[in-house]
Each structure stands twice: as C-alpha cells, then as structure tokens.
Write a structure and sequence with these properties.
There is one protein chain. By secondary structure, this protein is an alpha+beta fold. Strands 1, 2, 3, 4, 6, 7, 9, 10 and 11 form a 9-stranded mixed β-sheet that branches. A two-stranded antiparallel ribbon has the order 5-8. Strand 1 and strand 2 form a beta hairpin. The longest helix has 18 residues.
Length: 323
C-alpha cells in the first residue's frame, strides 16, 4: 500500500468514527456541530460533579497524525484509557510529587470521575511495546467538550475556578473544550515532536467539533507561591484575561498572583521559569485567570488557562493548522 493510499485509509477511519464527509478534513475549517449548548445549561451544571457510566467504545483507534513510529489516536476502549491513566500515574505520582489514593497506588493508575466520559488523546510509539504487546502510550491529553460536561456533572476546572465570566461573556452556542491531564513519557520529552503531535491531534479535534474556546488548569511545580513569585507575577501582569472574561479562583482557594511590581519583572527571565506547557500556551496566545490555586495532591500551583481559538498566534496557527 503506497503512502497516498495509507493516508486516505487513515482519514477514512476517522470519518467513520466521527462522521466526517467522504473527503479528508482540512485544518482550520469549521464543521457544524449537530447540538450546541446554551450558556445557561452549562452554567447550571458547571459546579456539579456526579458519577456516570462509562461510554462504550469501538475497537479501533483513528490515526489523526503520524511521524515516524509515532501516531496520534483517540482512545477507543477502556483498555486504551487505562493505558493513558498508567502513563499519568507514572509521570504524576512516580516522577513528580503527587499523592495517590490507596486504590490508585494499588492499580498504578491516575483516575477520577471525569475520565469515563472524556475523550483521551494518545500518542503511541509503534517501536515501543507495552507488556501486553500493544504499542506503548507515550503522551496523552484529556479532552472534555461543553455538551458532554453539561450531561455528566460539569468541568474539572470548576473545582478550582468560577467559570461564570467565561460562560456569560461568550455568545450563546459557543463551543467549549476543557484540556487537562497532559503528560509525556520521560524518554520522549526530549523529542519535541511528541508534544507537537498531541497538538496536531487537538487541531483535528477543534476542527471536527467547531471549538471556539479552550480552557483548563496549567500547573507550576511546587506549593510555595513566594518561591514562584516571578512566574506568577509575570502571568498576572502580562497575560491576564480581559475584563469580563477573567475567571477567578474560588474564594476559599484563591492565592494572589501579583507578588512583584510589573516594573521589576524581566519577561525573558520569567518565561524561562515557566513550565514548558504553560510557556507554550502563552506563546500561542492564551490568557490567564485571576488567582492561583494550591493543589496539595499533585504538589503544584495551578493557574487558569483561557484560550479563545480566534486568539491563536499566527505563527502557531501556521505550524499546526496547515493541512
């Protein structure tokens, strides 16, 4: 099978899974969504959390992008979701300082009530095999669309931030996507292509569901805000969301980010202090919410990422939105 045939087959799989028309999707094109949410329906559920049954998944993984032995797929089975959860456990709990629950420690997986109804974006390496012989999951992102959140208890982010300003400031029918639980296997972090492939997969997802706004929590390592005063103050002074759209940390969790005068901040030095993921968001054009939140379980200080798709930097758009 020649390269052209393989590409056509891959997008054919995506089409059958997600309902694309009988031609290759193009980056940057907006596809109409069958059902949209009202702001009121999301707002009514945004702070509600409830357990739901896991959805059924087909047996195939669509391939959204590929480079060498690496492929980007959407998890299509509980087994594949568990592979992403095991990667998260390895990164968050074994490499970093997150504290697992007894069940997490026993099962060697990171999980919560949102996993069962989120989509899980995976990068798999066909040259690295897991214990069961499947290609190993080396990168992952968790994706939660607004219409799904409204049906299943709201967003994870609402446990730390009041999302009302975002929901009120955007027009009815705005399509939201919460990003979270991003991580890459240590052996693949030096390869920029792994994270780039995750973002190429996200671009396909944005296109398929006509997403208007991305958002989520970004984490800085450590729980001492004074030790993080430079990056927190930089984000506060240089990248705050506009008035009316600035989501604020919940009152009982709020930690001030304005810990240094703007005149004392050297932006280049502050950028160097940011974790790679938050640095990437900032360079791509995101905004930051009001206030940080200390996450004791994960040993991090979280900030709110607010990212209207229309605000994406042109250089980033040219890199990831081209067909």
């Amino acid at each position: 099978m020649g390269p052209a045939r393989r590409v056509k087959l891959r997008f054919g799989i995506v089409g059958r899974r997600w309902g694309f028309p009988g031609r290759r999707p193009r980056f940057g094109r907006r596809v109409a969504v069958a059902q949209s949410l009202t702001q009121e329906s999301v707002a009514a559920l945004v702070n509600v959390h409830e357990a739901v049954s896991a959805p059924a998944h087909p047996d195939t993984w669509p391939i959204l992008a590929a480079y060498g032995s690496l492929e980007v797929r959407i998890a299509e089975s509980d087994h594949e979701i568990e592979a992403a959860q095991r990667l998260r456990y390895r990164v968050f709990y074994e490499e970093m300082s997150a504290i697992p629950t007894p069940r997490m420690r026993e099962e060697q997986r990171d999980f919560d009530q949102h996993d069962q109804f989120c989509d899980h974006l995976l990068v798999v390496d066909r040259n690295v095999l897991a214990e069961n012989g499947d290609p190993a999951v080396v990168g992952t992102y968790r994706l939660l669309r607004g219409e799904v959140a409204a049906c299943h208890g709201g967003y994870y982010t609402s446990s730390e931030y009041d999302l009302t300003p975002m929901l009120r400031s955007n027009a009815p029918g705005t399509n939201y996507l919460e990003l979270g639980r991003s991580c890459v296997l240590k052996s693949h972090r030096a390869k920029a292509i792994t994270m780039q492939l995750l973002w190429r997969g996200i671009v396909v997802y944005l296109d398929r569901y006509a997403i208007d706004v991305m958002f989520g929590c970004g984490s800085l390592p450590g729980t001492d805000p004074d030790a993080l005063k430079l990056p927190l103050s930089y984000l506060h002074h240089f990248h705050s969301a506009p008035d009316g759209q600035r989501m604020r940390a919940r009152p009982e969790l709020y930690v001030a980010m304005n810990r240094m005068p703007k005149a004392e901040i050297e932006p280049k030095e502050a950028l160097r202090k940011l974790p790679p993921l938050i640095k990437g968001y900032v360079r791509a054009g995101c905004f930051i919410g009001d206030g940080a939140v200390i996450d004791r379980q994960f040993g991090t200080t979280d900030v709110l990422i607010y990212f209207p798709v229309s605000n994406i930097d042109q250089r980033w758009r040219s890199k990831f939105f081209r067909a």
